[in-house]
Amino acid sequence: MPAGKLREVALMLKAIHAQEDLRAAQRKVAEVVSRLHSMRLGKAAELVETAVPETLAYYAFPEEHWRRIRTNNPLARIMREIRRRTRVVGAFPDGNSALNLAAARLRHIAGTRWSTKRYLNMKLLKQRNALTA
């Protein structure tokens, strides 16, 4: 697939998950599937039609949690930090040196306040369950 088409498909998938609610996301899925068929990307359209609804499960949770559920920002942040530090070093004499650097960073994270910070506010879920019960 040419880079231009690949970029266009990626933008369409992002647009699905940028919708304001589940109904809008489902409508967008139908639009994307139609567009993929028109681009003669039948297998991609079939994959979007069958697999994407599973990725919309975060809409069942309170809106305040959506961003945190649909992304893996904490993991991405750790990986970005390790990547930044390995680039500074440049070349490592062996694999153990790189592993030691990554492990040291992970130990630092585990030993600081950042590792104990709550990612989701569970009170919102408890309130929601109390209202529906």
TrEMBL record:
Top-level taxonomic group: Bacteria
- Residues forming coiled coils: none
| Family annotation (Pfam families) | Transposase_mut
- Keyword Cell membrane listed? The answer is no
Q: Which GO terms describe its biological process?
A: DNA transposition
Keyword hit for DNA-binding: yes
Arranged from A to Z, the UniProt key words for this protein are: DNA recombination, DNA-binding, Transposable element, Transposition
Q: Which InterPro entries does the record match to this protein?
A: Transposase_mutator
- GO-annotated molecular function: DNA binding; transposase activity
Function, as annotated, reads: Required for the transposition of the insertion element.
Q: Which family does it belong to?
A: Belongs to the transposase mutator family.
Q: What is this protein called?
A: Mutator family transposase
**Species in which this protein is naturally found:** Reyranella soli
